[in-house]
Amino acid sequence: MKITFQLHLGIDLGTSNTLVYLKNKGIIFEEPSIIAFDKRSQSIIAIGEIAKKMMGRAPQNISVVKPINFGVITDFEATQAYLGKIFEILQKEYFQLFRPIVLIGIPLNLTEVQIRSVVEAGLSVGFKKVHLIEQPIAAALGGNLKVDEAKGLMIIDIGGGTTEIAVISLGGIVIGKSIKIAGDRFNQSFLNYVRVKYNLIVGESQIEEAKKAIGSIVGKNNFYTLRGRDAITTLPKEVVVSSQDLREAIQQNLEDLVDEIKDILNSTPADLIGDIVNNGIYLTGGGSLIEGLDDYLAKNLNTNINLLENPLHSVVLGLGRIIENFDYYKKFCLI
Q1: What is the pTM of this model?
Q2: Could you give the residue ranges of the DSSP H alpha helices within the chain?
Q3: Does 319 lie in the same domain as 304?
């Protein structure tokens, strides 16, 4: 066990995954935001990847929960338990003289009640102080972008539950919004498409795996075999789906995403638009990894799209950058 004065943590509490950055150490935790409970004993069975494998396969006495939906805490007790397990892991490795200080990234447009629930979840598990920062600023910092200059910078962070669209200048968000057109929406659209076109009922985990395997909107045609139940006969069935199927399934989602981005651009001050045209739009988040999405957005928005170097980790790396030099970056925090 290592002895330390106090731990400083950055937590990207995402709909799909939770990542933790430890000051002077880097990313120390990266697991799905899922927790499994035993209903009989009211005890935690597993969190993260192990709990994810239980989804759709668990017996009646086991409850598998996603406590974060669309970037918002929807199950406070499950979130509290999830954060508590992370704290427990840290306590086994580090002996701390003082309780940890944590910085958590949050989506745009949260209500005061939702913001308070994030803070209370952190304090309730034993963190001494909880700071909050908006995810687009953290993502921009994680991509080594200069957010504190007097220039317009537009970033689009496509996560699991939400897409954060923001124009940043002088370290603050000039205009932005959080929308629910993101990875989970793509999955649901693909799931519905498969059911309607092929009469096939499959689980969310298979749909997610298929999306990763064949995800392309640039004309390539990869294939993936889905196995489930026939919606009409109820008998086992398997179907081979293609990248074209995925493109058709999420086409409306992509069009809606473009419309939302255009709305932000239309409301952005002219001087900042000039900066955005000059530098392009920055794209990040797990959803940005769909092959060809950057080209699709560039074509429909008539501007360059720059994919950040580490889109899956940009938010947590931005949180890490802040806690490594908190005296300077604390001015960007909401709390």
Answers
A1: 0.93
A2: 49-54, 76-93, 112-124, 135-142, 183-198, 204-214, 243-266, 270-279, 293-301, 314-324, 326-329
A3: no
